[in-house]
Amino acid sequence: MAYMPLDKSKFYLDKTKMPKIYDLSQPWGTDTPLWPFPGARQDLLFPRGQYLGRFHKRTMTYTGTLHAGTHMDAPNHVLHEEEVDRERYGYSLDEIPLEHCIGAGVVLDMTHLYDEFNAKWDAAGGDPAKFGNIWVELTPDHFEAAAKKDGLEIREGDWVAVNTGFHRFWRRNNDKYYNYYPGMGPDVAKWLIHEKHIKGITGTWGATDAPLWHDPLREQMPWLDTAYRKATGKDPTVEFPDYEPCHRLFMQHGVCTVENAGGNIDEATGKRLTIAAFPFRCEMADGGFVRLVAWESGAF
Predict the structure, then answer these.
(1) Among candidates 238, 172, 243, which has minimal Cα distance to 208?
(2) What does the alpha-carbon distance between residue 103 and residue 25 come to, in Å, rounded to a whole number?
(3) Would you call 61 exposed, middle or buried from its count of C-beta atoms within 10 A (0-12, 13-18, 19+)?
(4) Which one, 2, 72, 78, 92, has the greatest CB density within 10 A?
(5) Taking the model in full, what pTM does it have?
(6) What pLDDT, on the 0 to 100 scale, is given for residue 1?
């Protein structure tokens, strides 16, 4: 029988008896914002291979980058194989140790940076020539202060999720989201790796590295190069002389990196939770979609 009438009297699962799951993932579809590379780029395509009305089932196909929405990067995204201890930490997405994809962690509140950015943007009327240095590169002090504010501690083996507040720009103002989010540089990455010994890092940002750490910026993001020069009078090639150093540092040391966190992260902010993000088992993939989630420790 192709048609199945709905009988709610035979529903048995009771959601009220289940533990709360915080969904830290962004929704994505045909209008998902993508990293703003210069030049033409194919959008995400979702053609239907079969139709429910004709075949009694719907089948979607997908064509597009694996680095869309909330996703995990694999070491082969930015590193040559000889730069990675493949046996220990994996190289392609399917090789990432699953033990690294789940663990205790903290969701740090840095949403004041969103408020401060909006105040500066509004005061400048959106004119880069009046911005000053509107970009924030996160430091260990940002992490320590956010943890202290809510009585948290970044412990060895933790997953760290950072709520900058910039997920509120997702699909609303992608220029602000991708070009101005508070992000990381190599100094804080080294601190998180070598001093805090974290297991995973994610945040409400467009990339694991801050926007300006994409040298040469005049080729990778020429509009941002122009804005930074107008705002500060400085040369980003001198100030940020590397391309995605945090990507390479984290993944060389086995730290999972998930970009574009968001969803219901505001509800989970300021808490110590169990955090998980399992990538699909795709051979050769240099990244892929994850459902980034968190829950109260001991809830299951």
Answers:
(1) 243
(2) 17
(3) exposed
(4) 72
(5) 0.95
(6) 58
Spatial separation of the C-alpha atoms in residues 77 and 264, rounded to whole Å: 28
Give the pLDDT band of residue 160 (cuts 50, 70, 90): very high
CA–CA gap between residue 138 and residue 184 (Å, rounded):
5
Between β-strands 137-138 and 183-184, what pairing exists: parallel, antiparallel or unpaired? parallel
Neighbour count for residue 140 (Cβ, 10 Å): 15
> What does the alpha-carbon distance between residue 179 and residue 2 come to, in Å, rounded to a whole number?
50
Q: Please give the pLDDT value at position 41.
A: 80
Distance CA 156, CA 233 (A): 40
Residue with the two structure tokens 């001093």: 195
CB 63 within 8 A of CB 200: no
pLDDT tens digits, residue range 162-187?
A: 999 999 999 999 999 999 999 999 99
pLDDT, tens only, 39-49: 888 889 999 88
The three-point CA angle 222-34-168 to 5° equals 100
**Which token pair is 33?**
């914002």
Architecture per CATH, domain 20-29+43-295, reads as: 3-Layer(bba) Sandwich (3.50)
